[in-house]
């Protein structure tokens, strides 16, 4: 596989618009209302971190030293709207998007009733939408789009960590996430193997088909998110490990490199947290990051219409 030309990821950050000071909320606890999460046992062993076949320069996709992992459990899907609703109902938790009063929404998702919105410079398809949050995924007037079995979105790293702590788990490390995504198949680009999704006959995951960001052909059946449990699971029984929504990982976004360009990039991303898996907005011609080794990052208070998470449990 040849290296792709480097393009910025399609994930803006809250700091690009405005960012009032706010302290991280304490994680609420409760003895009631915890959802019964479906999990899969992920066997331990020698993990693979990164790949021998990196595609995007300066993203840190190259093979790196990986730890020996102990067996753990991972939710078979990203956390759903219904599961997050149980958390909020039980604890009264308020997400970062709700506290700020806005979040990022992809332009094509906006209801016709949406008033003028502010675009993000350089990625104008992202709009700052007042009132957008996990309950109102495209802002006011989008209530009908809330579906209990779809991934919860507009959740920041802070929000994801709070939920994970509430259910007695945590966010996965990058090594755990990649190990789980590979499903026992080794250094492969996708959870199903090596075959590349296309705009014609093979759509094994929820990504963009067509000309980004103007025309989504939706050949995979979904213009935005798909149900969290959809498409074929990988060898460990995990659904949508690539595509659908980006997934928060536990660690900061770091790249082990001495390159000047990489150091400059990391300086502009100080404090950012790691994201894995790509989303329904990824396409090979722009954001070819729906691959297991691909990476992105965002500030821990950033929330978007294509970011979610799953939870791991130690055994």
Question: What topology does this entry show?
Answer:
Blueprint: E1 39-42, E2 45-46, E3 68-69, E4 72-75, H1 81-91, H2 96-100, E5 102-106, E6 118-120, E7 123-130, H3 157-166, H4 174-182, E8 210-211, E9 215-216, E10 246-252, H5 260-267, E11 273-276, E12 296-298, E13 307-308, E14 312-314
Parallel strand pairs: 10-13
Antiparallel strand pairs: 1-4, 2-3, 4-14, 5-7, 6-7, 8-9, 10-11, 11-12
Structural overview:
It holds the Pfam family FGE-sulfatase. This is Formylglycine-generating enzyme family protein. The termini are far apart. The chain has a single domain, classed as paralog of FGE (formylglycine-generating enzyme) (Alpha-Beta Complex). Strand 6 and strand 7 form a beta hairpin. It has 5 helices and 14 strands. Helix content is 14%, strand content 16%. It is α+β, with helices and mostly antiparallel strands. It has a 4-stranded mixed beta sheet with strand order 12-11-10-13. A 3-stranded antiparallel beta sheet has the order 1-4-14, with no helix packed on it. A 3-stranded antiparallel beta sheet has the order 5-7-6. The chain has helices at 81-91, 96-100, 157-166, 174-182, 260-267, and strands at 39-42, 45-46, 68-69, 72-75, 102-106, 118-120, 123-130, 210-211, 215-216, 246-252, 273-276, 296-298, 307-308, 312-314. Residues 1-6, 20-24 and 26-30 have low confidence and may be disordered. The radius of gyration is 18 Å and the shape is globular.
